[in-house]
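Final report, Chapter 2: Outcomes

The project's central promise was a pipeline that accepts a single protein chain and returns its three-dimensional structure in a standardized token representation, suitable for archiving and comparison. That pipeline is now operational. To close this chapter, we reproduce one record exactly as it appears in the project archive, with the input sequence first and the structure output second.
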Amino acid sequence: MISTEQAKQYTERTKLLLAEAGAIIEHDHFVYDSGEHGSGWIDKDVVNENTDRDEGLCSMLAEVIRDLGAEVVCGPATGGLIVSQWTAHALGVESVFADHSDQPSAAPGGPLRGPFVLRRGYNKVVNGKRVAVVDDVINTGLALRQTVEAVRENGGQIVGAAAVVTRGNATPADCGVTDLRYLLEYKIPSWPAADCPLCKQGVPINTEYAHGAEFLAKQSQRNR
């Protein structure tokens, strides 16, 4: 594992790269993929516009997990796909990704899309291999947990999980692992939709970022 001093350097560099990109958005009303609501969002898309940032962040992430001895890196699409590829490149190992199944998720207040699964022959790639699961931002841990479950279901041995940023709301168990690592913890609170104080205050849901547009469309369908 990296030293405490190196971890501090990585944290500061990550903060700087995110700030330069204008990726940290606060004091608004967002809906996450899990269905929970919160007051902040890390705009991964603006980070991904610059491949130098991707390479810089994922090179650091690769060093954070190098000691795990992963043979394959897997991430949930879409943001985790990019992190998986750059991190695997830095490690010199294979990269795969999981994407959402076609199974609808209709539970009110629950996940907005079907669970992550392995397709495209990636189930064969992870079988019998040591796999690290990575993501860009951990909001509630749902995407990581579902990706971890998909890898295990297809015979992969999970050695740990990691992310560029965690919002501090998810434990390793929430992500389906015992070893969870990250470059930066940036705390943003979140709540189940039914308990969201921003909804109760009448704060409009942001539909430009996160999954607010999907949430409102689903809500509209239920009210018909």
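Archive annotation: The mean pLDDT is 93.
This record, like all others produced under the grant, will remain available to the consortium after the project formally closes.
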